[in-house]
UniProtKB/TrEMBL annotation:
Transmembrane segments: 6-24, 36-55, 61-83
Species the sequence originates in: Flavobacterium flavipallidum
Family annotation (Pfam families): MamF_MmsF (PF09685)
UniProtKB keywords: Membrane, Transmembrane, Transmembrane helix
Signal peptide limits: none
The protein's name: Chloroplast import component protein (Tic20)
Membrane topology: Multi-pass membrane protein
Compartments reported by the entry: Membrane
Domain of life: Bacteria
Keyword Transmembrane helix: yes
Amino acid sequence: MDKESKNIAIVSYFTIIGAIIALFMNNEKKDPFASFHIRQALGIFLSFFLIGYFIGYFDSWTISSAFYLFYFILWIYGFLGALQGQMKAIPILGEQFQKIFKNV
């Protein structure tokens, strides 16, 4: 893992736009470390929007707060993995994200 792939992995965790930018940055080289974290970040952001849409129908701040806290913890876990140069899948959903986005 070189510095460029680590930077791409870190960029991927900064909003969905950062994940898309990282996807284009990694397009030529296809570094496995960067690709791993791009898949994790894309999965976090897309599932957040998808599940968040349905959570919005609950008129409860406790459900909404728990949802935001859960995704914030997943994001922190992935982001710290990228900072530390580790390829650890996020808990619960990480392995599924690797399978779903295997072409990234």
